[in-house]
Amino acid sequence: MAAAALREVATYHGWVTTPAPARRRVLLADPRGYCAGVDRAVITVEKALELYGPPVYVRKEIVHNRHVVEDLEAKGAIFVEETDEVPVGARVVFSAHGVAPGVHTDAAARGLRTIDATCPLVTKVHHEANRFAAEGYQILLIGHEGHEEVIGTSGEAPESITIVDGVGHAATIDVPDPEKVAWLSQTTLSVDETLATVDVLRQRFPALLDPPSDDICYATQNRQAAVKLMAAESDLVIVVGSANSSNSVRLVEVALDAGAGAAHRVDNADELDERWLVGATVVGLTSGASVPETLVVGVLQWLAARGYADVSEVTAATESLLFALPPELRRDLKAAQAGSVA
Predict the structure, then answer these.
(1) Which of 163, 217, 310, 334 maximizes the CB count within 10 A of its CB?
(2) Tell me: the pLDDT tens digits for 78-94?
(3) Rounded to whole angstroms, how far apart are CA atoms 91 and 323?
(4) Could you give the CA distance from residue 173 to residue 237 in angstroms, rounded to a whole number?
């Protein structure tokens, strides 16, 4: 009897059952999206617009997410690259990534009224750079050349800082005194890659001094940890975040390194491709630290419409940290309550 006919008879008599299709589902990373520093920075611009009225100028993107920037622009924020584009005496917000001391000097020279929305965790790295430099150390700053945070930190002690852009670079750099060397890092890097870079540096410079506390921010670490938990079980991981968001780009790399079948970064649901779903039963979903939750909801709706309506969270940590608004804004908000704002 031919094989096809045999299967037909077996099925008729109930000897063979056809396997049910695998259940399509989504693993949703927790935590994801806004960190405390991003939340603080975005609220700073929103409060400034409410308090002072538009326009409020913002140097660089307040956070690295184009949807956030476009939303704030619609409310009256004007984004500029440098302070010389801001009218003399106007109000300007510095982004969450931090600025070098020279930017504060230039702003003061133009009579600008500044609000510094630098993430407090970035400010911590600035303080560490100043302390190490004052003690005569050459600082190896692990980070991406040209990133705004790295530019800002380097500006704190330019004569004492050498940028180390990855493991390969770490194997080639030289320092004036191998006995007086310390390392710091950009806050949004891959934890694993940073540790690998430190290992190379320590092999070359055994006296390498560690920062007093981990520079990679809690939110970056937590989001990477959540991705690692779900990646090995995911046929596909989708990361919501803009292309210039360092921590979002790192999440794609972390997902692949942790065993995801494939991983893609998108700004929003409009950039999703149905071809990615071919052969994918389990889809992991997360978002970078500068991504509003509404963009994640849009991806969930897109997936649900294609049969991925079963969603369960994968939790790596619980976050409760909040940062106070910049002191200059708090001062003016208090003055407004009393009836006068400068």
Answers:
(1) 217
(2) 999 999 999 999 999 99
(3) 22
(4) 35
